[in-house]
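In this section we turn from sequence analysis to structure. A common task in structural bioinformatics is to predict how a protein folds when a small molecule is present, because the ligand can shape the pocket around it. The inputs are simple: the amino acid sequence and a SMILES string for the ligand, here 2-acetamido-2-deoxy-beta-D-glucopyranose. Study the lines below before reading on.
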Amino acid sequence: MAPLKVLIVGGGVAGPALAFWLSRIGANITLIERSQQMRASGQQVDIRAQGVAMMKKMGIEAAVRAACVHEPGAQIIDLKGRAHAFFPATQTGTGKQSFTSEYEIMRGDLVRILYKLTEGRPNVQHLFNTTVDSFTQDDESDPNGKVHVSFRDGRKEDFDLVVGADGAGSKTRRIMLGPDAPEPRHPLGGYIGYFSIRSTPADSDRATFCPLPGPRVARIIGTRKDCPELTRVYMILLGKDPAIDAAYKSGDLAELKKAWADMYQGGGWECDRFMDALRHASEADDLYCSPFEEVRLPEGSWSKGRAVLIGDAAHCQTAGGLGSTWGLIGAYVLAGEIATLYEKDKSLPTAAVVQAARTYEEKFRPAATATHGGSEGFSHLFPRSSIGIWILLLLARLAAYFRIDQKFGMFGDTWEWPLPEYPALERAQTED
Ligand SMILES: Cc1cc2nc3c(=O)[nH]c(=O)nc-3n(C[C@H](O)[C@H](O)[C@H](O)COP(=O)(O)OP(=O)(O)OC[C@H]3O[C@@H](n4cnc5c(N)ncnc54)[C@H](O)[C@@H]3O)c2cc1C
Ligand SMILES: *[C@@H]1O[C@H](CO)[C@@H](O)[C@H](O)[C@H]1NC(C)=O
Ligand SMILES: *[C@@H]1O[C@H](CO)[C@@H](O)[C@H](O)[C@H]1NC(C)=O
């Protein structure tokens, strides 16, 4: 009996996590990534709530802990650099969450840890500079149906299951849903941009955020620091800007740098130092920019036959900051549903993956999309005027004084959702 043959499109967080789980049940996995090499860029991501239990199940807690960024907490400052409020880091992964979680890790380190899990496994192939051009599927009712995939380099191959783990702009999703499906990406108004600069001794090791007054759009500038040599600059733009829209669409690094630098130059605090570096220093070539957006797919459309979406491709919510946590969990739930059916019958007709993909969405969707829609209009509420920012700083000061973040949590309580247990996956682990 040939093993279940799976194509995973996208080597970010969700893709390698799924490769790990499915490799344990003996599936034959091809993990493809569009970039020339592992895309280990990005700034800090945090693993919270069920993500912590998830990490333990995957056996990567020690590796993550060893790579963790030790950020003492987050502060809000004024234009003179004076701290008005300080929120210390959360010391436990569960319970009420502050801005800085117990497990803050650079996205690249997390991606590397996840890749390592399947490196050298005979049943997992990692292919770079590879993407899909198109695919078609046999009918869902065909018990042994396949997905017929054409790759960009002209190769063709059949798979039992194709998984789109290719992020918010997923091409797999576009192919799966067809050209007439409505666009599921909902812009929430606003962008984030991150880049690195050389540190100066005065740069704080706290996450530091400074709201900037200005006539047009609400802007925040911030810094975080995960290593001695570099400071990471965070730009948060809460509102529309045609120049940044155009630069983002062009995907051109020079245009993006210019649009962001024009937006923040002269903004106050250390903006000018940061923007000079953005324009001229090579450290800033890691500029990453993303709109605040949500991927909202109609119920029942996370999969279609033997194609299924995980991670940001299925349920991206930029503003929530939980993308990595949900990416890890979604991969586990899909693998768990497949393992449960697979364990019962190793000669499983591939129609079973159709069912597993549906059950995965039914179980996981309520958790992954619980806060969708909640950020609608948040960009309009953020102050732009000096007086508005003064009030904001005052409220932040009160919140920090009364430890509001610890009492109520800054990230809501979607933690009530119980992480499903999959004995079939756990058993596969012990046989390993
Ligand atoms: C470069 C980068 C930097 C990021 N930085 C941050 C950050 O600093 N903070 C934060 O909170 N979140 C960041 N994110 C988002 C965060 O990684 C995700 O929200 C979360 O990890 C969910 O991961 P995912 O695997 O679903 O998607 P992603 O992590 O976005 O990974 C998708 C992967 O698919 C690849 N891909 C895309 N299209 C194709 C295609 N057609 N064929 C093959 N491969 C394809 C991409 O190159 C990427 O490696 C970043 C994402 C990226 C890609
Ligand atoms: C797994 O798939 C690859 C590529 O599709 C193929 O070359 C290999 O023979 C397969 N391995 C098994 C054990 O079926
Ligand atoms: C990437 O793949 C394309 C074909 O899809 C090929 O033309 C190109 O040479 C490859 N690039 C590298 C660096 O291997």
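The two ends are 19 Å apart (CA to CA). As an exercise, try to locate the residues that line the 2-acetamido-2-deoxy-beta-D-glucopyranose site and compare them with your own expectations.
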